[in-house]
Amino acid sequence: MSTRKLRTPGTSFRTQEPNSTYRLPLQPGARTSGVVAHGLGLSVDGREVLSDISFTARLGTMTAVAGPSAARNSALLELLAGTREPGSGQITVDGHDVHAEPESMRARIGLVQREERLHPRLRVEQALRYQAELRLPPDTTRDHRERVVDQVLEELELTPHRASRISKLPPEVRRCVSLAVELITRPTLLVVDEPGAGLDAAQQDHVMAVLRRQADIGCVVVVAMSAASSLSGLSVCDQVLVLTGRGAMAFLGAPLQAESAMGTTDWAKVVEQVAADPDGADPPRSPRHGRAPPSFPRSGSSGCWRAASSA
């Protein structure tokens, strides 16, 4: 396992601060310190799935996890969401350990899985009202619940569909309803597995734009993307974490910095490159500097490729 730190870019190509759109925080002190993952490792039946994963996601940012193994990408999201215990390492949200304080984390983390879990016969507003009654604190007034539902509908561009049955909605709108369900508690962290699954390019763009807006409002958004057809959506993210086929970190940085670190900004090619060399043992080529010299930073046994610039 690697013991060296991954060198990350000092600044994101996005410099605009999250806007001040009003949200309805239900927990004092929520959304104050973002998400920190340190030294995450996971093994299943003696087989290493994830190795030494560390990154920070500030409030108002969107992070993508990409790589050739959809199972490993999803496993990392499950660790972040608290639905799976890591073998090593720690995750904190708002300064709280996700796995040590599961009860306090329920309202701070939203998880949207790849498979839809919506009741098709319900109307959109019925589904959200039901979730509001189920998930918000018992002393929440009906008027407050309605305000939360109305605001979530507006943020996700679902107001025109509020009276529609879920079964009648286009695929990208159903996906947004799944997002809306998890946003009822106004979480600090929204984790979305394969947001573009089953969608065409235009539908994927719509969902990614909605997620980008949630990040701009102040949420920490983390998505997993593995299908080649969905990788173009990485351009709207603040940072991208690329995993090797064996679950180690290959790249962590802003999308535009992939050129200097990986030799291309074509994410399909980046994933192909990582898939062809799962240990990251062969340093990538750079269009401007040719093959990286032997001193090109790598992360020991995990063969971790680095972003070219650092703070």
From TrEMBL:
* Family annotation (PROSITE patterns): ABC_TRANSPORTER_2
Signal peptide span per the entry?
none
The annotated regions of Polar residues compositional bias extend over 8-21
Any one Pfam family here would be ABC_tran
Q: What is this protein called?
A: ABC-type multidrug transport system, ATPase component
User: GO molecular function of the protein, one example?
Assistant: ATP binding
Source species: Mycobacterium terramassiliense
Keyword check for Transmembrane helix: yes
Q: Name one GO cellular component term.
A: membrane
Positions of the UniProt region annotated as Disordered: 1-21, 275-311
| Gene3D superfamilies registered for this protein in UniProt | P-loop containing nucleotide triphosphate hydrolases
Q: Domain of life, per the record?
A: Bacteria
Record lineage: Bacteria, Bacillati, Actinomycetota, Actinomycetes, Mycobacteriales
Which SUPFAM superfamilies does this one have? P-loop containing nucleoside triphosphate hydrolases
Question: Which residue intervals define the domain ABC transporter in the entry?
Answer: 30-271
Q: Where in the cell is it found?
A: Membrane
Q: Does the keyword Mitochondrion apply?
A: no
What are the protein's UniProt keywords? Membrane, Transmembrane, Transmembrane helix, Transport
Membrane topology, from the record: Multi-pass membrane protein
